[in-house]
Write a structure and sequence with these properties.
Elements lengths: L6 H6 L3 H10 L14 H8 L2 H13 L18 H7 L3 H9 L7 H6 L19 H7 L3 H9 L14 H7 L3 H20 L24 H7 L3 H11 L1 E6 L2 E5 L20 H8 L7 H40 L4 E6 L2 E6 L1 H36 L1 H5 L3 H25 L5 H14 L2 H4 L6 H37 L3 H16 L5 H4 L5 H25 L2
Length: 545
């Protein structure tokens, strides 16, 4: 494992005489570094036998500066002997390191050390919050945590991700530790407040359980974000305030902060609440009676009326949009007889009311698009572009259709302003998008909602998968027919693609698939196409649940 007669061999064998002999020969050998940036003192703590730890104590007494040595390579960067002692659950060594007279000058440096190497990054099983106190809490060692706190460990410490100790305990799903640490923090704040001079100005610190990490999540919203349904229910229950009890009946209040967005914050950026996190992640496992009750009350007292009002406004707007589209194409023409010749001319006077109605309707349409576009931009600002883009469910449908419709109408108006042709195609798609937007309003109702959701899921799952597979077959068969029947250039290939696609719809014309030049090859390809595409793939799409 190690070369003979080196400090690493002596450490591995716990050979105190060999270690002392090597150090006497070269005192700097105690600073040696291994393959991952470790020092001899780290290895003594990692081996962790009584013999190894005795040698470690002697070396610390002899060379106090080695207490603060850290791994200096990326994988374990920042880890020191204090982290190792905590992970090894060595209570006696933790006490010795903090209480020994030789460690007094290095105590705060030990308590504040951060292990930030790749091995301890977020997402790793060994993500323990970087500091020794976080390590002790995340490994469920309250006895060691109390010792660290008594020696001045910072309870408000945050790691490089902005996570406090309470955030870490939510991630590790340690509810008992969460309760103990929170109680200790409250007691410490009470003591600090009582010892403060009455006339001095002291800013009240933000409660630890309300603090945000770098993702703008509190411990409560973090539990929702990572899908810890049991922990979320427990945290919600922990926050409740019992107003009165009578036998088995109780009146309980649940604070709405962090659970729902407050009215005061609706016009500015705010941290995500539990409901927003649930919608963003589309996680039904997080639903519990408290959240169901909140959603039902919001729907009954606010959302239902707002939705109905928006529905009628949108319906009226789309009817005006429809009328504008019809009026734009309306012309009153007169048939006249001049010198025994019949002609058709536009009656400008009769067309004038239609033109006025069209101008008014078009103004309303453009104003509505500008207003809706401004609302969407405001929503992007409040939620953040990332949360807006990565929304799910009905919110995603509403955002997608709103932005697409507004963009299409504005492009059409821009093209018409500069008299650029071909705006009709974009206008046609805008008409379709506008009416599809109505699905958003019928989605919340039990009568129509399941069908809308079913269509939505099929389009973005089953139909999408079918199209990907079909395109592969279409490319193969169309190229095969193109080669067999020697059609001319790109137009010939596109014609082959068209006839293969029409075959999917059952519109077969044998003269395009079977010709005398390669009769059997064409017939074989035709049979394969019918079996694979028309029979197999279409029936597979229909049978998918």
């Amino acid at each position: 494992m190690y070369k003979d007669n080196t400090i690493w061999t002596a450490v591995f064998n716990a050979d105190e005489n060999a270690i002392n002999r090597l150090i006497d020969a070269d005192p700097n050998i105690i600073m040696s570094r291994g393959a991952v940036g470790e020092c001899p003192i780290h290895m003594l703590f990692l081996y962790g036998t009584d013999k190894h730890l005795k040698i470690a104590r002697d070396l610390i007494i002899r060379f106090p500066m080695i207490m603060t040595q850290i791994y200096n390579k990326p994988k374990y960067y920042g880890e020191n002997i204090f982290h190792i002692a905590i992970v090894k659950r060595n209570l006696d060594m933790v006490k010795w390191l903090l209480s020994d007279i030789h460690s007094e000058n290095n105590r705060q440096q030990l308590l504040a050390a951060t292990a930030t190497g790749d091995f301890f990054k977020i997402g790793q099983p060994t993500y323990y919050g970087e500091t020794p106190l976080a390590f002790a809490c995340c490994t469920n060692q309250w006895n060691i945590s109390e010792i660290l706190l008594k020696h001045g460990a910072d309870m408000n410490v945050m790691d490089s991700n902005g996570n406090t100790i309470l955030h870490m305990l939510v991630i590790r799903n340690l509810r008992d530790m969460y309760t103990k640490f929170k109680s200790y923090w409250i007691e410490h704040q009470a003591i600090t407040k009582s010892t403060t001079v009455e006339n001095s100005i002291l800013l009240k610190p933000l409660n630890l359980w309300n603090r945000l990490n770098k993702d703008n999540l509190t411990p409560l919203t973090l539990a929702a974000d990572i899908g810890q349904s049991d922990t979320l229910s427990w945290l919600l229950d922990e926050r409740k305030k019992i107003q009165w009890s009578y036998g088995n009946l109780s009146c309980v209040l649940h604070p709405l902060d962090q659970l729902d967005v407050s009215i005061q914050e609706k016009d500015k950026k705010h941290p995500l609440c539990v409901l927003e996190v649930m919608i963003k992640n589309n996680d039904s496992k997080l639903v519990n009676p408290i959240i169901i009750s909140l959603i039902e009350k919001k729907w009954k007292h606010f959302a239902y009326r707002i939705l109905i009002r928006r529905f009628f406004f949108t319906l009226i707007y789309l009817l005006i949009f429809l009328a504008t589209t019809i009026l734009e194409q309306t012309r009153i023409e007169m048939i006249i007889d001049i010198n025994n010749k019949t002609g058709i001319i536009n009656d400008k006077d009769s067309n004038m009311p239609y033109r006025i109605a069209y101008i008014i309707g078009n103004t309303i349409v453009i104003s509505g698009v500008l207003f809706k576009g401004a609302c969407e931009i405001k929503e992007m600002y409040i939620l953040g572009l990332r949360n807006y883009v990565y929304s799910t469910g009905s919110v995603f449908l509403e955002n997608l259709l709103s932005c697409s419709f507004c963009l299409c109408i504005l492009i059409v108006q821009f093209l018409r302003l500069f008299k650029i042709r071909h705006e009709t195609v974009i206008y046609a798609f805008a008409c379709l998008l506008g009416w599809i937007y109505m699905f958003f309003f019928i989605m919340p109702f039990r009568f129509t909602g399941p069908f809308v959701i079913m269509i939505y899921k099929m389009l973005f799952n089953d139909v999408l998968r079918f199209c990907i597979i079909y395109i592969i077959f279409l490319a193969g068969f169309s190229q095969s027919y193109f080669v067999l029947f020697n059609r001319n250039g790109l137009q010939g290939y596109l014609s082959s693609v068209k006839h293969c696609f029409l075959g999917l719809l059952g519109d077969f014309h044998l003269e395009h698939y079977v010709k005398e030049q390669y009769l059997w090859a064409g017939a074989l390809l035709f049979i394969l196409y019918v079996v694979i595409i028309t029979i197999l793939l279409l029936n597979l799409l229909i049978s998918i649940e």
